[in-house]
């Protein structure tokens, strides 16, 4: 039997170049109005026992070619439990080819760059959290395609904390992190949550880029715009998603901010900060460093060795949210990066970095915040 | 606070004409390339306690203007449990206006013509059933927008039974019926299922019109085509969904067929048959009538008084699936119609006709089939 | 490693004669103050891969020696999912020996005569049903050991229907049947339930013998009394459980009654009636026969060929509940018998007769009752 | 209607002195062969709206008369969700009377000293954890009534960690803590669990006193013996439960030990250590103090101000497990005490200290252990 491949669903992205029996040659569609591509998500239908041999080609031109070496593709038979497949990368073959080989144990196999977080699940999450006692829902605005920018607010304290995710829509681990954060924050028994709800006002935007999410983009919105380069000057035409959130931040002020991301190349969880902003204050840096140190003590899944190079003094790119918020509000702001690959220091060959680990990382981040406040 | 209305999600459909505080004037978008409209599905965000007053106007031109009188809108706060809202219809106001009034008990309220069945839920269903022992998955083809026409096959017997639904995508109860049918058929303990799996080969297409479903259509596919008028001559250009299914039927043959629908106007569950086909055989009619009689004995939710007028001898419209299959295969074929309103004979003011009742009706239909075989 | 066997828990019953490696010689403890024994329930702890060889001896003296031939023991690793084990019976060895052989796939294996229904699960069921709208809870009295005789009442109609189970505590399928009956009757969507709630007043006693249940008895209460031989003259000293229920029946009257049981020897589901009662009325017999016929049409798991011999006219034993209620109230009363073995006509080598099938049988019994009323 | 009170179930304990309408005078049965009493657990059946007025008398003679002031009784309608009731204590009335007043919102209300943890739930937990990859089950011995002393072993490291609970059976929060600990330790995604499984060998005894648990005891086993005064000289006659566990500890050695308890009087979570043992080593004390400090940093539900007075040097009572293990093995051993009342520092008037909080405390204890190793 010849396998069949389909990606016509929420966040689906694959181009079928050729299918031959149980082998296929595939490529990835670019983000609309953009040259970025890296996210893939498709369904294979096949027979149990098929020796699947799937080659995703042309990856030397992908957004992060360093992302493929050491990476293993994610898969699920039931769309709930995700595991990793045997995967290898050859930079020289077919313009950069990722080869996935798997003996099918089911007739339907979903394969993705990371476990997807659909807009339907997003709406389930928002509706169910909005019903919880003490939670306020706000629609901050709409995306270019008219999807709501949903914001959930929790807590009665004075410290303004903003959590937001998925500026880069293909980094779906960021919304799993959000699901974990929300579960913890609404837990009536959790002592950190109870403490944080008394100290803080949380403003939580689980998905800042619904259009890119639904379309299976890696990095941009409907207009092909990288939202995390718009924070100095968001516009209704290019980046209404950022404009809506930044306007709401201007109303509330921002004391702490966490911008949740995935990183394609680095096999670790790490933070990126705001060291290069013009107005940098020692107390601000100190709190950031204290958070980073405490988080490293709080979870073996976080580390401080691997990460991005710091900006030189005054050289921060203020179009990014973390630097913009640090500069604009004096906030302790941070980018939280999780790997597409695995955590090098605590590897799990079966699951790799996973939705469950993303959720537990969110728990640790919130516990750490509680410790510092 | 002013309420906010959004429909930019799977099967969403509403046009916001005007919002004033907690009141809104709305209308329904037509199916693409078509004049049909009746399905609506949108989200209201508001404050608890808001006196919502929502007017959907222009309904005199809807596909089934008789569908509005005696109808109550469906709503959910958590997207799982659906209930009915206070609803009234004034045919003379605003070109036919449905008025929904509700004091909000939550900050988010989903409102729809009937409890939606999303494509994500569809894919969950297909993937999970495909993993069950004894189930074969087949992709019969793709829709105009490239979505798969999924078919699940169960059973080792010789009687060929085809179950298919949602030719008319706004009739979402039809896919709830399918979920009920599949749950029963894969139940390892159910005696009817065990008996049927031995007697029959089931071919089950839970959704024949994924494009219309996702787009929030009432009645047509991406090309504005009513699929249930294409069975005499389906084409790859207009109706590949029907072509794919009919080709597969030609391979297997069809002994029994159930085409699952919702009816906008009639407040009852009823069958429609194939009495006007040229080749009508007494045994065929007899089996159909026996099924109808037995089903009425098997569930208080089915009846035989209300329904469509029968075609005169030889006057059947062979572009419809039920008649086409009866004529083409000598099948005992039937259209199963469930109400958007409620079952007049067993009304439930809280839930009206519901997903749960649709699923239980499927159980009764399968038990009845087992009795007759 | 030597296996370890324990039965010191709810409904546990085994005597360990000898353990040698992964083999054990066992016997069954008699019901307190009685010679009846047949129910067993114990836990084996072992190593994965152990070749378990368990011999239950002395069964020629058990209550139903014909129960062992063709019987397979029930087992579970997680206490939720129950399956059958390889089992054989040798009437001549060791005074009648049942041999269970199984290669352990888990470290803990529960083995029982039938899937147990614990008193904790009973209390969960009662508490959760008692919270449902329209349900009245009554404590009808207490057992000899002080446990409550719980009764749940549902429905607003005039027809008085009594459902009661587990007079014989080792027949645990009877309480699974009850769980199925209660689930259906409280389902807000189920059309039979909605119809029955309007026509009837149900009085439901899920467990008439909690003392015997907890103690792992087959057939008697704390005093060694077979409750189903006490209905002509129940006493506070010997059978307060029956006295409590019969007194409540005297208050309400009884139109229909179902006494739910398991049968050790016959591999089928069948009814037993009241044909030998002095006051037998044709209409009463007719309704009973109509129920039996309709039930056979409604579920492939019921049949009318196998069963008990009927009593001769006037020869009914009025100490049994079915005959007593038929005589005392003119009720259409019946004993529903399910097999410990399997249903010969629809065998399932994996599960045999099971909790799930018991629950589905209850659904069919209630649907049938609705049809006849 | 007159209410009905029953306690004839797992861990039930109440004596009904008198019932008058919706009021009752009650007392608590002593532990068998002992004068200890404090645990209660009973079921009230009543009508919705009943003004329940329940007086538990004679409490001046209870084991911990200081436990009643500031205490609120626990209740549940569904046996899953537990909440606190309006409760007051008058030391001078009726020999010490706890008065519970509540307007019934359900027909069945379970009331207990703390949310119970039944032996059935215990067996579910043990069977389900024993099936997890990497878990070894051992039956260490049996209680005086023949119940198994279940031990679950996890981890491949060299550090021997013993977790054991419910020496005092009425301290049911201790087994909820165990459920939380086991859930975390078997979680394939949890980074602390993954780290701990590599460093340690866990030996986990969720319930050391099954006889007392089932019988509704506060503090002793079947023989009326306080197991936590037997560790210097456990015997098969008086304390086989301790003997079995201590023998297994002698085999494995003990590096860290947590003995989980509830405290009746002190409204806080705290540790008790081993400061008075003869062989006290500075490093041992240091690790204990480091754990206590880190735990206080890790959860707002733990504190170090309230607690027991420390023993003077050399004055430790070596019959208690914590001191015995510290002395015998040089272990870092600790008694973890949770309140029956509430955590004074983070009070929750609705739930008080709860099963959920007990489970989260276990998570924090394990995270803390991972930090220190
Ligand atoms: Ca990113
Ligand atoms: Ca239709
Ligand atoms: Ca029986
Ligand atoms: Ca204690």
Automatic annotation (TrEMBL), chains A, B, C, D:
Which cofactors are reported in the record for this sequence? Answer: Zn(2+)
Provide a GO biological process annotation: proteolysis
One GO molecular-function entry = zinc ion binding
Matching PROSITE patterns, A to Z? PEPTIDASE_M14
Which Gene3D superfamilies does the entry link to?
2.60.40.3120, Zn peptidases (3.40.630.10)
Record: active site = 337 (proton donor/acceptor)
Q: Where is the Peptidase M14 domain?
A: 115-373
Q: According to its UniProt record, which protein family does this protein belong to?
A: Belongs to the peptidase M14 family.
Spell out the protein name for this chain.
Answer: Peptidase M14 domain-containing protein
């Amino acid at each position: 039997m010849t396998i069949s491949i389909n990606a016509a669903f929420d966040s689906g992205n694959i181009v079928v170049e050729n299918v031959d029996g149980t082998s296929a040659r595939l490529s990835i569609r670019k983000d609309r109005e953009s040259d970025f591509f890296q996210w893939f998500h498709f369904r294979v239908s096949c027979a149990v026992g098929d020796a699947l041999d799937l080659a995703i080609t042309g990856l030397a031109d992908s957004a992060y070619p360093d992302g493929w070496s050491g990476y293993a593709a994610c898969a699920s038979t039931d769309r709930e439990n995700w595991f990793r497949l045997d995967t290898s990368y050859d930079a020289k073959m077919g313009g950069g080819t990722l080869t996935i080989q798997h003996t099918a144990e089911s007739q339907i196999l979903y394969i993705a760059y990371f476990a997807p977080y659909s807009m339907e699940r997003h709406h389930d999450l928002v509706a169910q959290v909005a019903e919880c006692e003490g939670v306020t829902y706000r629609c901050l605005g709409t995306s270019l395609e008219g999807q709501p920018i949903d914001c959930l607010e929790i807590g009665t304290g004075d410290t303004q904390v903003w959590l937001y995710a998925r500026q880069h829509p293909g980094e779906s681990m960021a919304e799993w992190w959000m699901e974990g954060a929300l579960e913890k924050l609404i837990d009536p028994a959790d002592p950190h949550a109870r403490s944080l709800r008394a100290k803080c006002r949380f403003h939580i935007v689980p998905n800042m880029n619904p259009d890119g999410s639904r379309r299976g983009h890696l990095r941009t919105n409907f207009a092909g715009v990288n939202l995390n380069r718009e924070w100095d000057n968001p516009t209704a035409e290019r980046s209404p998603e950022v404009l809506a959130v930044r306007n709401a931040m201007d109303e509330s002020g921002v004391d702490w901010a966490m911008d949740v991301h995935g990183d394609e190349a680095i096999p670790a969880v790490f933070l990126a900060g705001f060291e290069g902003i013009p107005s940098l204050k020692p107390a601000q840096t100190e709190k950031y460093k204290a958070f980073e140190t405490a988080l490293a003590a709080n979870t073996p899944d976080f580390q401080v060795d691997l990460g991005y190079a710091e900006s030189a003094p005054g050289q921060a790119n203020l179009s990014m949210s973390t630097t913009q918020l640090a500069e604009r509000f004096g906030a302790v702001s941070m980018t939280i990066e999780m790997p597409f690959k695995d955590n090098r220091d605590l590897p799990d060959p079966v699951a790799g970095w996973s939705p469950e680990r993303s959720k537990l990382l969110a728990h640790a981040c919130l516990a750490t915040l509680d410790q510092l406040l």
